[in-house]
């Protein structure tokens, strides 16, 4: 079995449901049946709550250029999970295409769109081999996906290939120069809990950085800003990397036990902006 089919199998069994571990929805109170509108609504609220600083008037409007890409523009999401972001983009009036490697996500996203009376092209596809013609999209984005691809360089090249010359992109990838990686993964689990003896760096990061510590996540490898910039540079006119520190609230309580959870926002922000867990990479495709 190739590494990518392991990734596919794992995400099919553990789709991104925003529970304490992937595949679970422990925040449900029993009233919401999976696959129902109430379920999607509850899941979306959970997803939004993980990213509070990224919303102002509507979900993720601090992240996405909704104002530049409205009716008639073509937008692609790579790795749509259960379809929350694609739903918001579709409501912005765009001609939406959403792809994901695992079929659970595709089935659930299609169901969501059907229940809401929304239309989009939602298809199973592998980021390393997009079955899409060159230069199709005005805007392409991917949130928390491509660090799960065993071939990140190829996935980024594919994303750039299908983006129009002059089109824009946004990519969220996990940051290796982060408190989460250094402290929670390398120090706490790798060194203190002695996991370095048993796991390779990739296995350690895959198990402890994503998925709430369940075993089996086959590939999660955080990157550095320099690595991504180097991979994207042949394809772009402009590229910027911002560090999103939305994870820092949860990290500080481990980092400074007893005090961390009481630190005010202004004391955490400078650290979040340097060593947060998510890199948000934006730019435009070469003309
Ligand atoms: C952490 S989830 C994120 C999902 C969604 N973007 C979100 O934020 O809720 C990662 C997703 O990436 C998908 N994925 C992993 N490797 C992929 C690949 N090579 N091509 C397309 N999707 C992939 C998984 O199936 C999974 O749905």
Descriptive account of the structure:
This protein has 287 residues and is of the alpha/beta class. The chain has a single domain, classed as Rossmann fold, CATH 3.40.50. It has ten helices and seven strands. Strands 3-2-1-4-5-7-6 form a seven-stranded mixed sheet, with helices on both faces. Helix 6 (179-192) crosses helix 7 (201-208). The chain starts with a helix and ends with a strand. The model has no long low-confidence stretch (mean pLDDT 91). Bound molecules: S-adenosylmethionine (SAM). Residues 7, 11, 16, 78-79, 81, 100-102, 105, 126-128, 143-145, 148-149 line the site of S-adenosylmethionine.
Structural topology:
Blueprint: H1 3-13, H2 37-50, E1 74-78, H3 84-91, E2 95-100, H4 103-116, E3 121-124, E4 137-143, H5 152-162, E5 163-174, H6 179-192, H7 201-208, H8 225-232, E6 236-244, H9 248-255, H10 265-275, E7 278-285
Parallel strand pairs: 1-2, 1-4, 2-3, 4-5
Antiparallel strand pairs: 5-7, 6-7
Structure keywords:
287 residues; alpha/beta; Rossmann fold; 10 helices; 7 strands; 37% helix; globular; binds S-adenosylmethionine
